[in-house]
Amino acid sequence: MSTSVVLIPTPAGAVRVTTPAPRGTWRELAEADASTRVTQTPAWLDCVCATGPYRDASRLYEFEDGRRLLLPLVARRQRPSWLGEEESWPGEWGIGGPVCPGPVGPTEARAVFDDLARRPANRIGVRFRPGDDEAWARSAPADFRSEPHTVHVLNLEGGFGTVWERRFHQGVRRGVRRAERSELEVEVDRTGRLVPVFYELFEQSIARWAKQQHEPLALARWRRKHVFPRHRLETVADRLGESCATWLAWRAGEPAAAIVVLRHGGQALFWRGAMNRELAHPTRANHLLQRLAIEDACAAGCRQYDMGGSLQGPSLARFKESFGTDALSSPRYVRERLPLYAADRGLRKAVRRAIRFQGY
User: Fold this and answer.
1) Do 81 and 67 fall within a single domain?
2) Is the residue at 128 inside a domain?
3) How far is it, in rounded angstroms, from Cα 38 to Cα 42?
4) What is the DSSP string of 89-108?
5) Same domain as 335, residue 324
6) CB 251 within 8 A of CB 279
7) pLDDT at residue 16 above 50?
8) Global confidence as pTM
């Protein structure tokens, strides 16, 4: 892929913009920015591009004072620019946003927004990590609207002993002890070997989710597998290697529950979970898996354990809050010239009303 370098005038002076961003520079900035998440790494962009119709559109901004800021970004392939999309990230790929050592000032944030506003793509979207949104919110042009998102983040400072005693709620500690008495066997895999078992549990979970949400099973299977196909998990496990851990709880030789946890630097992310409720719920298998994954993150020196959002409903939010997480804002800023997504959302809402859908 050819590299483009342009100079753009901004209130911060002339800014040199390189796209796609050089991988070496990206890794250097990610290493220097302690808040960088696995979803802001080149490996994650490669996963997005390998499993969807996207190409690398990342942008490196170099300011006159020597500051550098990198924005992970993908563009949709095989569409005319006026119908195109450039996002960080699309769909359910999670948090993207800028990688930059140190705080971003308002002139730098405005320079990036102005550059994105000039992009020919119909839709531009950037999902910011928690803690980054204040400077960007003040600098966002009027044509970028904010879409609210919330993630549940557990502070790991003080180590696992502190987390267990001071942050886990009593119900979590009780659930873990119950799980430890339930003859569960737990293993962790960092090679991708357990991907088929995880996906088997995921497929079982679809039927339960469909019933809870009053959704036809055939539609639920199509929708869930479209959003999270098996080859996506296989690709992430392959490309992230040891940074992708699958934790699996067995009961009497049958898989009861599984979670996928990703890690980069001081940040850990609970990415996916699935279970056989008949086996997992009575044994509190999910409590045990989360406890072990959190302890593992603490041992690896992680400072935060991100448990993601809770769009599936209040029960999931309560489960995550019981581990002592804080609900933090992680907004997406979107500019769209033609309201294609608004029309699509309207159609989806009409279908959901027709089937009395009760989920996300």
Assistant:
1) yes
2) yes
3) 9
4) S-TTS-----B-SSPPPHHH
5) no
6) yes
7) yes
8) 0.92
- Distance between CA 99 and CA 306 in Å, rounded? 18
User: Does 262 map to a domain?
Assistant: yes
Q: Residue type at 30?
A: A
Burial class (CB in 10 A: 0-12, 13-18, 19+), 16: middle
- For 260-282, the pLDDT digits (tens) are 999 999 999 999 999 999 999 99
pLDDT higher at 350 or 165: 165
Q: In this structure, are 162 and 141 located in the same domain?
A: no
- Return the structure tokens found at 158: 């003080």
- Reported as a single tens digit per residue, the pLDDT across 204-249 is 999 888 888 788 889 889 989 999 999 999 999 999 999 999 999 9
Other CB atoms closer than 10 Å to residue 77's CB: what's the count?
11
- Determine which helix (DSSP H) or strand (DSSP E) holds 275, and give its type and residue range: strand 267-275
Residue 325 lies inside a defined structural domain of this protein: yes
For residue 11, pLDDT beyond 90 = no
CA torsion through residues 105, 333, 141, 134, sign: negative
Look at residue 359 and tell me if it is in a domain. no
Range of the domain at 241: 152-329
Residue 340 has pLDDT above 70, yes or no: no
Between the alpha carbon of residue 6 and those of residues 170, 291, 333, the distances in Å are: 56, 48, 24
Q: How many domains are contained in the chain?
A: 2
Match 């997504």 to its residue by tokens: 341
Distance CA 320, CA 268 (A): 15
Task: Indicate which CATH number applies to the domain containing 191.
Answer: 3.40.630.30
Q: Within 13 Å and on the Cβ side, how many CA atoms surround 87?
A: 25
Cα atoms found within 13 Å of the Cα of residue 66, Cβ hemisphere only: 1
Which CA distances in Å does 342 have to 117, 146, 276, 347?
Answer: 19, 14, 36, 9
Same domain for 196 and 47: no
Read off the pLDDT of residues 48-62 as tens digits, 9 standing for 90 and up.
Answer: 999 999 999 999 999
Nearest to 262 by CA among 286, 242, 235: 242
